[in-house]
Automatic annotation (TrEMBL):
Record's signal peptide: none
InterPro entries on file: Calcineurin-like_PHP (IPR004843), Metallo-depent_PP-like (IPR029052), Metallophosphoesterase_sf (IPR051158)
Organism ancestry: Bacteria, Bacillati, Bacillota, Bacilli, Bacillales
Residues that span the membrane, as ranges: 6-22
SUPFAM superfamilies: Metallo-dependent phosphatases
Domain Calcineurin-like phosphoesterase: 44-202
GO-annotated cellular components: membrane
Pfam families: Metallophos
BP term (GO), one: lipid A biosynthetic process
Official protein name in the record: Calcineurin-like phosphoesterase domain-containing protein
Keywords in alphabetical order: Membrane, Transmembrane, Transmembrane helix
Organism: Virgibacillus profundi
Keyword Nucleus in record: no
A GO term, aspect molecular function: UDP-2,3-diacylglucosamine hydrolase activity
Length: 257
């Protein structure tokens, strides 16, 4: 009987801890050093957030970021089935704190909750939707291109369309699912300088380090910087274990300080 009580107590506190982890924000401050970055974009800074799902973005988290932000990128799953459109709209408004342009990439769950209404709301909030297309950002006589893939079940990821007529000397690709980049042929992969992705939640709940997906994190190969976020929200259950609820402040540097 004592063992049963101890097990129940353990389970009770484990559930509390998992709920806490799912709602306790981590801000990943990261500098990506890349000598290929045009010099006019030295210290270009992105706020990247993915997989918000059912969560309300914590304003305290947003207000704690003191650096200037040049672009906000939402890496998909801004919402999901059953989330009121008003909540999603309020989350967008919170991301306007820095008066920076906001870019959105579709995630699989975004298509589950009236995508036409989401599309209209995003346009009303002056959010740029990157779905197999790009946005060139110009500083002086130099340009970088933000590419967005529509990589979900309901659409086909088309890197050729995303890159078409892109004028950038440096490509930053956002795809909701990292495998959309991983499945590109080597030549296309090597042409992308930085990749931002989400979708996997890092497995969300990992038992003894094991989960359905790999942990999120940063990898640097010879040609490409790749960041896979563990996501801000959660899906199905409001719990996390062995993963972080995170968003990212990414500063790009070309080594010239």
């Amino acid at each position: 009987m004592v063992y049963i009580i101890l097990i129940l107590i353990f389970v009770f506190f484990l559930i509390i801890y998992m709920f806490f982890k799912a709602h306790h924000d981590t801000i990943d401050y990261r500098t990506i050093l890349d000598e290929r970055l045009p010099s006019n974009f030295n210290n270009f800074r992105i706020f990247f957030i993915s997989d918000i799902h059912r969560r309300n973005i914590n304003e305290t988290t947003i207000k704690s970021i003191k650096q200037s932000i040049d672009a906000v990128i939402i890496g998909g799953d801004l919402t999901e089935n059953g989330v009121p459109l008003k909540r999603t709209s309020e989350n967008i408004k919170k991301l306007k704190r820095w008066n920076a342009p906001i870019y959105f990439i579709w995630g699989n769950n975004d298509y589950e909750e009236q995508p036409e209404k989401i599309h209209s709301m995003l346009l009303e909030e002056n959010v740029t939707i990157l779905a197999n297309n790009h946005k060139d950002i110009v500083r002086g006589n130099e340009t970088i291109s933000l590419l967005g893939l529509d990589c979900c079940t309901y659409s086909e990821a088309r890197i050729d369309l995303a890159r078409k007529d892109a004028a950038g000397e440096y490509f930053i690709l956002t795809t909701h699912a990292p495998k959309a980049f991983d499945e590109l042929d080597s030549m296309l992969k090597n042409s992308i300088h930085t990749v931002l992705a989400g979708h996997t939640h890092g497995g969300q709940i990992r038992i003894f380090g094991y989960g359905p997906y790999e942990r999120g994190g940063f990898q640097k190969s010879r040609y490409t910087n790749k960041l896979v976020s563990e996501g801000y929200g959660y899906t199905t259950l409001p719990f996390r274990l062995g993963t972080k609820s995170e968003c990212h402040v990414i500063t790009f540097s070309n080594y010239i300080q």
